[in-house]
Queue: 2 jobs
Job 1
Amino acid sequence: MARAFAPGKCILFGEHAVVYGHPAVAVAIDAGVEVSIKESTKWTIEGMDFDPIRHPHITHILRDAFNYDGAPLEIDVKSGLFSAAGLGSSAAISNAMGAALQFHIEPDLAIDRIGLARMGHSAEANAQKGRASPTDTATSALGGCVVVSGELVDGTKHIFDATLDTPEGERSWSISKTTIPDGLDAWIVLGFTGIGSPTGRMVAGVASLLDADPSKEKEMEAIGKITHAGLAALSAGNLEGVGIAMDTCHEKLKSLQVSSPELEHLINAARPHSLGVKLTGAGGGGCMVALTRDPRRVAEAIEIAGGKPLISKLGAEGVRILS
Ligand code: PMV
């Protein structure tokens, strides 16, 4: 049996603006997806017949990334992530599947996180009609705090570059990492609204808004600047600075009309006990994130307000083999 775990992710700064070439900062979270595989006499997933159409990410990893032609596999997937919530669950499935399959085929080979990030990105692009940023797959594969941008961001460590042929032409990104100081007395608490986060629809909505009102461009530029400031504060361990940047980023996202009454309700519940709080990911539904020194209290506040909380440290380890 080969088992691998890949974490989910949370975008701290830069969602939506990253689509226009500005940087985004994401951290790997403690919760994620575990994939186990073992040889069998027929292809199954979760005890049922494996239907490639229902599992495009896993199918892409098997067929296109590995060209797998070995014995049928019994595949099991255990997820600790809310799905369609902006936590990168499909990226985590791709990365954990890639790592488990790699270990199954060549157990002595060291884990290649950049290779897995690339594989995961092509699986996402394949499943999303050629449009996918490498943010989720890179953060889940590499772990820690990842910066994705049109160009390398000063003060970060370059890890790799990604390019993708999209229906709108070739796009490229620089993926780098920043170190979060050890021993920070702060956690993130995610709050799921229970409503799916429709990334494609939200990105298209922002594009129409910019078309109709070009003055909204300045919100994008402001998010770019806030992201740089938030990243500098995070690298320096300045938690108050990170919190202020999160609050300001949320105001700009609101002005891009990507928040929702449900997100605002959870954000308002978490705010009194938080250093900073904002929506995370595409918005419209999905999750909010709070930075706090009192994670239990924030989780309780989110739960009382009707959300589903998830506590994590800032920046968990990336994809790994379990056995
Ligand atoms: O898919 P989510 O919810 O993690 O958010 C995607 C972030 C966006 O900036 C809105 C879209 C993108 O491709 O970067």
Note: Residues 217-235 form the longest helix (19 residues).
Job 2
Amino acid sequence: MLFQKFAGNPVLGPEAFPSDIMYVFNPGAIRCNGEYLLVADAATAATPIVFWIARSRDGIHFTPDPEPIADWPAPAAGPENCIYDPRITFIDGEYILMYASQAEGRGVRTGVVRTKDFRRFTRIEQAETGRNNRNSVLFPEKINGRYVRFDRPMGDDELEPSDMCISYSDDLSNWYGSKVLMTPRPGCWDSHKIGGGAVPIRTSEGWLEIYHGVDLTCNGYIYRLGVMLLDLDDPSRIIARGGMPVLWPDRPYEMQGRVPNVTFGCNALLESDGTVRIYYGAADTCIGLATAKLDDLIAACHRGNPVAETFFFGKKQENSIETLELATL
Ligand code: BMA
């Protein structure tokens, strides 16, 4: 596996929390004021998910705040009944959080909230589209003068296959120019649903995106992470999409829990030595840490999946490399 999982995983689980929290997962992550800061989904058995901040000086030992985020700003249209999967983007001197915002009677939308200090949060109201949408991830820079995000408009049926899209905005409220960026690949690890994951990292070869892919087996879903590279000036153009996943569930804490066989990513932090660290949700129950070298992740984008490509597409794709560990297929 390309990502190395930290031997002391999980780095954060429900037992660290002061109340009846049973599940802590899928955090947004950022470095802020010399700390690693996670904004995690936190849930009891009975209540909807809330956002709970945990902080760490060393990136390994995390201390949760005494309470979940207080004064989370409600949308003008009415209260949310569930919020989850925040992605945190630092842009123009502030932090923008994009997350799944569910409300009674209107399905799920992308919620957008801004903060400068992770204490006071202000809502950026979103133009109503009449369609479900989540897995939104804001790029860390404007591109050609516009904000850019991944998102995933979708129907009401959770089981429907879903594509990963890209859209644009001038004000972070109205999103336009939505285009399908990538579709699931038959027969591969990302055959059923795909969605944005980490805030993309600018590299000399393009935007590196770590996304999630869902495979449907006769015993349920498997959530894995994969990589792709997008053009720096036109991120709707895919330069390369890795054929194999870079992280997948193979440890007990990822295979057993609220939802088994899930590794889910909402962040990727590039360190000064070229290491990328991710804090990923495991089995919708706890949080693992994994690291990889940026160069290796870029190389993985160019590596194909020859067996699947020959079988499902009738020929190998151009970026295939024969020397894959095919046992993981
Ligand atoms: C997705 C999201 C994630 C979750 C995953 C696996 O649809 O809801 O929050 O981790 O399913 O249950």
Note: The pocket of beta-D-mannopyranose is lined by residues 26, 84-85, 223, 259, 262, 264, 281, 284 (CB under 6 Å).
